[in-house]
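Provenance and format

Records in this collection were gathered into a single text stream. Each protein contributes a sequence line and a C-alpha coordinate line. The two records reproduced below are adjacent in the stream.
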Amino acid sequence: MRIQAAILRDPAKPFVIEDVELDEPGLGEVLVRVVGAGMCHTDVLYRMFPELAMPMVFGHEGSGVVEAVGPGVTRVKPGDHVVMSYDSCGWCAQCLAGTPPYCDEFMARNVSGLRIDGTTGTTDLAGEQVAARWFGQSSFATHAIATERNVVAVDAALPLETLGPLGCGLQTGAGSVLIAMGVRPASSIAVFGTGAVGLAAVMAARVAGAAEIIAVDLHPARRELALELGATRAIDGADPDLAGAVGQVDYSFDTTGVPAVMSTAVGVLRPGGLCGLVGAGGGELTLQPELCAGRNVRYILEGEAVPQLFIPQLITLWEQGRFPFERLIRTYRLDQINDAERDSADGTTIKPVLLPGA
Protein backbone atom coordinates (compact mmCIF):
# COMPACT_ATOMS: atom_id res chain seq x y z
CA MET A 1 0.00 0.00 0.00
CA ARG A 2 1.12 3.57 -0.63
CA ILE A 3 1.75 5.71 2.44
CA GLN A 4 3.58 8.91 3.35
CA ALA A 5 6.69 8.89 5.50
CA ALA A 6 9.34 11.30 6.75
CA ILE A 7 12.60 9.94 5.35
CA LEU A 8 16.14 10.80 6.34
CA ARG A 9 18.30 10.22 3.29
CA ASP A 10 21.39 12.05 4.49
CA PRO A 11 22.31 12.47 8.18
CA ALA A 12 23.45 16.04 7.42
CA LYS A 13 20.19 17.08 5.74
CA PRO A 14 16.55 17.60 6.81
CA PHE A 15 13.83 14.97 6.79
CA VAL A 16 11.81 14.84 3.57
CA ILE A 17 8.18 13.75 3.18
CA GLU A 18 7.80 11.12 0.48
CA ASP A 19 5.35 8.53 -0.77
CA VAL A 20 6.55 4.97 -0.20
CA GLU A 21 5.18 1.49 -0.78
CA LEU A 22 4.58 -0.58 2.35
CA ASP A 23 4.15 -4.37 2.22
CA GLU A 24 1.19 -6.06 3.86
CA PRO A 25 1.88 -7.36 7.39
CA GLY A 26 3.67 -10.70 7.46
CA LEU A 27 3.84 -13.45 10.05
CA GLY A 28 3.31 -11.98 13.52
CA GLU A 29 3.09 -8.44 12.15
CA VAL A 30 0.51 -5.68 12.57
CA LEU A 31 -0.34 -2.77 10.26
CA VAL A 32 -1.03 0.38 12.29
CA ARG A 33 -2.45 3.67 11.05
CA VAL A 34 -0.33 6.13 13.00
CA VAL A 35 -2.25 8.79 14.94
CA GLY A 36 0.59 10.22 17.05
CA ALA A 37 4.37 9.74 17.14
CA GLY A 38 6.64 11.20 19.78
CA MET A 39 10.06 12.48 18.75
CA CYS A 40 12.82 11.28 21.05
CA HIS A 41 16.53 12.15 21.22
CA THR A 42 17.25 8.65 19.94
CA ASP A 43 15.48 9.48 16.68
CA VAL A 44 18.01 12.22 15.88
CA LEU A 45 21.08 10.93 17.72
CA TYR A 46 21.77 8.62 14.81
CA ARG A 47 22.58 11.55 12.57
CA MET A 48 25.98 10.93 14.18
CA PHE A 49 26.19 7.43 12.68
CA PRO A 50 26.22 7.57 8.85
CA GLU A 51 26.94 3.84 8.69
CA LEU A 52 23.29 3.13 9.47
CA ALA A 53 21.17 1.84 6.62
CA MET A 54 19.89 4.80 4.62
CA PRO A 55 17.37 5.99 3.59
CA MET A 56 15.62 5.50 6.93
CA VAL A 57 12.21 6.19 8.47
CA PHE A 58 12.67 6.89 12.18
CA GLY A 59 10.04 7.19 14.92
CA HIS A 60 9.73 4.80 17.84
CA GLU A 61 6.99 6.26 20.06
CA GLY A 62 3.93 5.66 17.91
CA SER A 63 0.27 5.24 18.72
CA GLY A 64 -2.50 4.38 16.32
CA VAL A 65 -5.23 2.06 15.13
CA VAL A 66 -4.70 -1.48 13.89
CA GLU A 67 -5.85 -1.77 10.27
CA ALA A 68 -4.71 -5.32 9.48
CA VAL A 69 -2.87 -8.23 11.07
CA GLY A 70 -0.65 -10.88 9.59
CA PRO A 71 -0.80 -14.65 10.07
CA GLY A 72 -0.46 -15.87 13.65
CA VAL A 73 -1.50 -12.62 15.35
CA THR A 74 -4.05 -13.26 18.12
CA ARG A 75 -3.60 -10.50 20.73
CA VAL A 76 -4.87 -7.58 18.64
CA LYS A 77 -7.34 -7.20 15.80
CA PRO A 78 -8.33 -4.55 13.25
CA GLY A 79 -9.89 -1.56 14.98
CA ASP A 80 -7.89 -1.91 18.20
CA HIS A 81 -6.15 1.19 19.52
CA VAL A 82 -2.51 0.55 20.36
CA VAL A 83 0.68 2.12 21.66
CA MET A 84 3.85 0.90 19.94
CA SER A 85 7.01 0.28 21.97
CA TYR A 86 10.35 -1.47 21.42
CA ASP A 87 10.58 -4.93 19.86
CA SER A 88 11.97 -8.15 21.37
CA CYS A 89 12.14 -11.79 20.39
CA GLY A 90 10.15 -13.30 23.26
CA TRP A 91 12.12 -16.51 23.56
CA CYS A 92 15.68 -15.68 24.66
CA ALA A 93 16.69 -16.03 28.32
CA GLN A 94 16.27 -12.31 29.02
CA CYS A 95 12.79 -12.16 27.49
CA LEU A 96 11.71 -15.27 29.36
CA ALA A 97 13.07 -13.77 32.59
CA GLY A 98 10.84 -10.72 32.15
CA THR A 99 13.54 -8.27 31.04
CA PRO A 100 12.90 -7.89 27.28
CA PRO A 101 14.88 -4.60 27.02
CA TYR A 102 17.96 -6.83 27.30
CA CYS A 103 16.76 -9.22 24.60
CA ASP A 104 19.58 -11.02 22.79
CA GLU A 105 18.25 -9.54 19.54
CA PHE A 106 17.50 -6.03 20.87
CA MET A 107 20.00 -4.20 18.66
CA ALA A 108 19.10 -6.09 15.50
CA ARG A 109 15.37 -5.62 16.05
CA ASN A 110 15.44 -2.01 17.15
CA VAL A 111 18.33 0.03 15.79
CA SER A 112 19.03 -1.49 12.38
CA GLY A 113 15.84 -0.28 10.71
CA LEU A 114 15.43 -3.79 9.32
CA ARG A 115 13.46 -6.90 10.11
CA ILE A 116 15.41 -9.64 11.85
CA ASP A 117 15.78 -11.37 8.45
CA GLY A 118 17.37 -8.23 6.95
CA THR A 119 14.38 -7.12 4.87
CA THR A 120 12.51 -3.82 5.18
CA GLY A 121 9.14 -4.36 3.54
CA THR A 122 9.25 -0.77 2.28
CA THR A 123 10.38 0.82 -0.99
CA ASP A 124 10.35 4.34 -2.38
CA LEU A 125 8.71 5.15 -5.70
CA ALA A 126 11.97 4.41 -7.51
CA GLY A 127 11.93 0.90 -6.08
CA GLU A 128 14.80 1.50 -3.66
CA GLN A 129 14.64 -0.21 -0.27
CA VAL A 130 13.85 2.11 2.65
CA ALA A 131 14.79 1.06 6.19
CA ALA A 132 11.47 1.18 8.03
CA ARG A 133 11.64 -1.01 11.11
CA TRP A 134 13.19 1.45 13.56
CA PHE A 135 12.41 0.02 17.01
CA GLY A 136 10.04 -2.36 15.29
CA GLN A 137 7.79 0.40 13.92
CA SER A 138 9.23 3.50 12.11
CA SER A 139 6.25 5.63 13.12
CA PHE A 140 7.24 8.92 11.42
CA ALA A 141 4.72 7.93 8.78
CA THR A 142 1.00 7.65 8.15
CA HIS A 143 1.25 3.87 8.64
CA ALA A 144 3.73 1.50 10.27
CA ILE A 145 4.34 -2.22 10.39
CA ALA A 146 4.92 -3.37 13.96
CA THR A 147 4.93 -6.80 15.58
CA GLU A 148 2.45 -8.38 17.94
CA ARG A 149 5.07 -8.18 20.69
CA ASN A 150 5.68 -4.45 20.46
CA VAL A 151 2.08 -3.20 20.41
CA VAL A 152 0.04 -2.59 23.55
CA ALA A 153 -3.76 -2.45 23.25
CA VAL A 154 -5.36 0.52 25.04
CA ASP A 155 -8.90 1.73 25.70
CA ALA A 156 -10.42 3.29 22.59
CA ALA A 157 -11.85 6.12 24.72
CA LEU A 158 -8.37 7.45 25.52
CA PRO A 159 -6.82 10.38 23.55
CA LEU A 160 -4.73 8.22 21.25
CA GLU A 161 -2.68 11.08 19.79
CA THR A 162 -1.29 11.79 23.28
CA LEU A 163 -0.22 8.26 24.18
CA GLY A 164 2.67 7.63 21.79
CA PRO A 165 5.47 8.94 24.06
CA LEU A 166 4.56 6.27 26.62
CA GLY A 167 6.21 3.71 24.34
CA CYS A 168 9.79 4.79 25.00
CA GLY A 169 10.86 8.09 26.61
CA LEU A 170 8.26 8.28 29.35
CA GLN A 171 8.46 4.54 29.93
CA THR A 172 12.23 4.84 30.26
CA GLY A 173 12.14 7.66 32.82
CA ALA A 174 9.31 6.28 34.92
CA GLY A 175 10.38 2.64 34.63
CA SER A 176 13.93 3.44 35.68
CA VAL A 177 12.65 4.97 38.92
CA LEU A 178 9.84 2.56 39.70
CA ILE A 179 11.23 -0.73 38.32
CA ALA A 180 14.96 -0.75 37.61
CA MET A 181 16.08 1.42 40.55
CA GLY A 182 13.17 0.66 42.87
CA VAL A 183 13.21 4.10 44.50
CA ARG A 184 12.00 3.75 48.07
CA PRO A 185 9.52 5.95 49.98
CA ALA A 186 11.12 8.79 52.00
CA SER A 187 14.38 8.48 50.02
CA SER A 188 16.21 11.18 48.03
CA ILE A 189 16.94 11.30 44.31
CA ALA A 190 18.70 13.76 41.98
CA VAL A 191 17.61 13.79 38.33
CA PHE A 192 20.18 15.23 35.92
CA GLY A 193 18.50 16.51 32.76
CA THR A 194 14.80 17.32 32.79
CA GLY A 195 13.72 16.68 29.27
CA ALA A 196 10.89 14.20 28.75
CA VAL A 197 12.80 11.25 30.26
CA GLY A 198 13.99 13.25 33.25
CA LEU A 199 10.58 14.78 33.94
CA ALA A 200 9.00 11.32 33.72
CA ALA A 201 11.52 10.28 36.37
CA VAL A 202 10.57 13.27 38.54
CA MET A 203 6.88 12.38 38.33
CA ALA A 204 7.61 8.73 39.03
CA ALA A 205 9.77 9.61 42.04
CA ARG A 206 6.82 11.51 43.45
CA VAL A 207 4.62 8.44 42.83
CA ALA A 208 7.25 6.33 44.63
CA GLY A 209 7.04 8.59 47.67
CA ALA A 210 10.56 10.04 47.53
CA ALA A 211 10.95 12.77 50.14
CA GLU A 212 13.54 14.80 48.24
CA ILE A 213 13.47 15.09 44.45
CA ILE A 214 16.19 17.33 43.02
CA ALA A 215 15.95 18.41 39.37
CA VAL A 216 19.11 19.58 37.60
CA ASP A 217 18.93 21.31 34.22
CA LEU A 218 20.39 24.20 32.23
CA HIS A 219 16.96 25.52 31.14
CA PRO A 220 15.11 27.72 33.69
CA ALA A 221 11.69 26.84 32.20
CA ARG A 222 12.36 23.13 32.57
CA ARG A 223 13.50 23.58 36.14
CA GLU A 224 10.29 25.47 36.88
CA LEU A 225 8.17 22.76 35.28
CA ALA A 226 10.05 20.11 37.27
CA LEU A 227 9.05 21.91 40.48
CA GLU A 228 5.43 21.94 39.34
CA LEU A 229 5.57 18.21 38.56
CA GLY A 230 7.00 17.08 41.89
CA ALA A 231 10.60 18.21 42.33
CA THR A 232 11.34 19.64 45.76
CA ARG A 233 14.41 21.54 44.54
CA ALA A 234 15.70 22.66 41.14
CA ILE A 235 19.36 23.47 40.46
CA ASP A 236 21.03 25.14 37.51
CA GLY A 237 23.19 22.55 35.78
CA ALA A 238 25.81 25.25 35.14
CA ASP A 239 26.42 25.75 38.86
CA PRO A 240 30.24 25.63 39.28
CA ASP A 241 29.79 23.62 42.47
CA LEU A 242 27.06 21.36 41.19
CA ALA A 243 27.88 18.42 43.45
CA GLY A 244 27.89 20.68 46.48
CA ALA A 245 24.58 22.23 45.48
CA VAL A 246 22.98 18.81 45.13
CA GLY A 247 24.43 17.30 48.31
CA GLN A 248 24.31 13.58 49.01
CA VAL A 249 21.39 11.47 47.82
CA ASP A 250 20.23 7.87 47.88
CA TYR A 251 19.62 7.71 44.13
CA SER A 252 20.76 9.66 41.09
CA PHE A 253 19.55 9.44 37.52
CA ASP A 254 21.33 10.83 34.47
CA THR A 255 19.60 11.45 31.17
CA THR A 256 22.23 13.69 29.58
CA GLY A 257 24.84 11.19 28.46
CA VAL A 258 27.50 13.83 29.18
CA PRO A 259 30.47 12.12 30.91
CA ALA A 260 31.15 15.03 33.29
CA VAL A 261 27.51 15.09 34.37
CA MET A 262 27.39 11.31 34.77
CA SER A 263 30.49 11.47 36.95
CA THR A 264 28.79 14.09 39.12
CA ALA A 265 25.68 11.90 39.32
CA VAL A 266 27.82 9.09 40.74
CA GLY A 267 29.73 11.43 43.02
CA VAL A 268 26.64 12.74 44.83
CA LEU A 269 25.57 9.25 45.93
CA ARG A 270 25.72 8.22 49.53
CA PRO A 271 27.62 4.94 50.09
CA GLY A 272 25.26 2.18 49.05
CA GLY A 273 23.42 4.52 46.68
CA LEU A 274 22.42 3.73 43.12
CA CYS A 275 22.99 5.79 39.98
CA GLY A 276 20.89 4.97 36.92
CA LEU A 277 22.23 5.99 33.51
CA VAL A 278 20.10 6.20 30.39
CA GLY A 279 21.61 9.06 28.39
CA ALA A 280 23.06 8.23 24.99
CA GLY A 281 25.91 10.50 23.98
CA GLY A 282 29.59 10.62 23.17
CA GLY A 283 32.79 10.39 25.14
CA GLU A 284 34.05 8.00 27.76
CA LEU A 285 32.95 7.83 31.38
CA THR A 286 35.86 7.51 33.81
CA LEU A 287 35.11 6.59 37.41
CA GLN A 288 37.64 6.84 40.20
CA PRO A 289 37.66 3.82 42.56
CA GLU A 290 37.30 6.04 45.60
CA LEU A 291 34.32 7.75 43.95
CA CYS A 292 32.52 4.44 43.53
CA ALA A 293 33.31 2.90 46.92
CA GLY A 294 30.09 1.36 48.16
CA ARG A 295 28.14 2.97 45.31
CA ASN A 296 26.35 1.28 42.43
CA VAL A 297 26.13 2.32 38.79
CA ARG A 298 23.64 0.77 36.39
CA TYR A 299 22.96 1.47 32.73
CA ILE A 300 19.25 1.01 32.08
CA LEU A 301 17.37 0.31 28.86
CA GLU A 302 13.67 1.16 28.49
CA GLY A 303 13.28 1.43 32.27
CA GLU A 304 13.48 -2.39 32.34
CA ALA A 305 9.74 -2.28 31.69
CA VAL A 306 7.56 -4.87 30.01
CA PRO A 307 5.40 -2.56 27.86
CA GLN A 308 2.23 -4.66 28.04
CA LEU A 309 2.35 -4.40 31.85
CA PHE A 310 3.86 -0.97 32.46
CA ILE A 311 2.15 1.23 29.86
CA PRO A 312 -1.33 0.43 31.25
CA GLN A 313 0.02 1.28 34.72
CA LEU A 314 1.26 4.66 33.49
CA ILE A 315 -2.12 5.32 31.90
CA THR A 316 -3.83 4.56 35.22
CA LEU A 317 -1.50 6.99 37.01
CA TRP A 318 -2.25 9.60 34.35
CA GLU A 319 -6.00 9.11 34.76
CA GLN A 320 -5.53 9.65 38.51
CA GLY A 321 -3.68 12.92 37.85
CA ARG A 322 -0.42 11.49 39.25
CA PHE A 323 1.52 11.32 35.97
CA PRO A 324 0.47 14.40 33.96
CA PHE A 325 2.74 13.78 31.00
CA GLU A 326 0.45 15.72 28.65
CA ARG A 327 2.06 18.88 30.02
CA LEU A 328 5.29 17.97 28.21
CA ILE A 329 3.71 17.66 24.76
CA ARG A 330 3.48 20.03 21.80
CA THR A 331 2.01 18.69 18.55
CA TYR A 332 3.20 19.13 14.96
CA ARG A 333 1.99 17.97 11.56
CA LEU A 334 4.17 15.32 9.93
CA ASP A 335 5.37 17.89 7.38
CA GLN A 336 6.58 20.04 10.31
CA ILE A 337 9.03 17.35 11.45
CA ASN A 338 12.08 19.54 10.90
CA ASP A 339 10.50 22.27 13.04
CA ALA A 340 9.86 19.67 15.72
CA GLU A 341 13.48 18.51 15.62
CA ARG A 342 14.74 22.10 15.89
CA ASP A 343 12.40 22.93 18.77
CA SER A 344 13.42 19.78 20.64
CA ALA A 345 17.13 20.49 20.14
CA ASP A 346 16.96 24.08 21.42
CA GLY A 347 14.69 23.25 24.37
CA THR A 348 11.63 25.09 23.06
CA THR A 349 9.60 21.87 23.15
CA ILE A 350 10.11 19.09 25.67
CA LYS A 351 8.23 16.35 23.82
CA PRO A 352 7.25 16.96 20.19
CA VAL A 353 4.46 14.69 18.97
CA LEU A 354 3.86 14.36 15.23
CA LEU A 355 0.29 13.95 13.99
CA PRO A 356 0.59 12.14 10.62
CA GLY A 357 -3.13 12.39 9.94
CA ALA A 358 -3.36 16.15 10.50
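Adjacent record:
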Amino acid sequence: MQTFRIVLHPEIEGGYTVTVPSLSGCITWGKDVQEARAMAKEAIELYLEDLQASGEPIPDDSQSLELSLTVA
Protein backbone atom coordinates (compact mmCIF):
# COMPACT_ATOMS: atom_id res chain seq x y z
CA MET A 1 0.00 0.00 0.00
CA GLN A 2 1.29 3.45 -0.88
CA THR A 3 0.29 6.95 0.10
CA PHE A 4 -0.18 9.79 -2.36
CA ARG A 5 -1.12 13.39 -1.62
CA ILE A 6 -3.97 14.76 -3.72
CA VAL A 7 -5.02 18.39 -4.10
CA LEU A 8 -8.62 19.31 -4.87
CA HIS A 9 -9.12 22.58 -6.71
CA PRO A 10 -12.74 23.86 -6.69
CA GLU A 11 -13.90 24.91 -10.15
CA ILE A 12 -16.08 27.96 -10.87
CA GLU A 13 -18.58 25.85 -12.82
CA GLY A 14 -18.72 23.30 -9.99
CA GLY A 15 -16.86 20.17 -9.09
CA TYR A 16 -13.20 19.69 -8.33
CA THR A 17 -10.11 19.19 -10.43
CA VAL A 18 -7.74 16.83 -8.66
CA THR A 19 -3.97 16.79 -9.07
CA VAL A 20 -1.42 14.37 -7.66
CA PRO A 21 1.75 16.43 -7.17
CA SER A 22 4.16 13.48 -7.05
CA LEU A 23 2.74 11.98 -10.27
CA SER A 24 3.36 14.52 -12.99
CA GLY A 25 0.33 14.87 -15.27
CA CYS A 26 -1.96 12.77 -13.07
CA ILE A 27 -5.10 14.90 -13.15
CA THR A 28 -8.79 14.05 -12.87
CA TRP A 29 -12.13 15.62 -11.97
CA GLY A 30 -15.18 14.89 -9.81
CA LYS A 31 -18.53 16.59 -9.31
CA ASP A 32 -18.10 16.57 -5.50
CA VAL A 33 -15.38 15.71 -2.97
CA GLN A 34 -16.44 12.06 -2.73
CA GLU A 35 -16.39 11.53 -6.49
CA ALA A 36 -13.15 13.51 -6.84
CA ARG A 37 -11.45 11.21 -4.32
CA ALA A 38 -12.75 8.09 -6.08
CA MET A 39 -11.61 9.39 -9.45
CA ALA A 40 -8.19 10.26 -7.99
CA LYS A 41 -7.81 6.72 -6.66
CA GLU A 42 -8.61 5.29 -10.09
CA ALA A 43 -6.27 7.74 -11.86
CA ILE A 44 -3.43 6.89 -9.46
CA GLU A 45 -3.93 3.15 -9.94
CA LEU A 46 -3.80 3.53 -13.74
CA TYR A 47 -0.76 5.81 -13.53
CA LEU A 48 1.06 3.27 -11.34
CA GLU A 49 0.22 0.45 -13.76
CA ASP A 50 1.85 2.47 -16.55
CA LEU A 51 4.94 3.16 -14.43
CA GLN A 52 5.28 -0.53 -13.57
CA ALA A 53 4.79 -1.61 -17.18
CA SER A 54 7.58 0.70 -18.32
CA GLY A 55 9.90 -0.25 -15.45
CA GLU A 56 9.94 3.25 -13.96
CA PRO A 57 10.27 3.83 -10.20
CA ILE A 58 7.11 4.56 -8.23
CA PRO A 59 7.22 7.74 -6.10
CA ASP A 60 6.19 7.51 -2.46
CA ASP A 61 4.48 10.43 -0.69
CA SER A 62 4.25 8.70 2.70
CA GLN A 63 6.98 10.86 4.23
CA SER A 64 5.77 14.17 2.77
CA LEU A 65 4.90 17.10 5.00
CA GLU A 66 2.45 19.67 3.74
CA LEU A 67 1.79 23.07 5.28
CA SER A 68 -0.41 25.99 4.34
CA LEU A 69 0.71 29.57 4.79
CA THR A 70 -1.37 32.73 4.63
CA VAL A 71 0.52 35.77 3.44
CA ALA A 72 -0.95 39.24 3.80
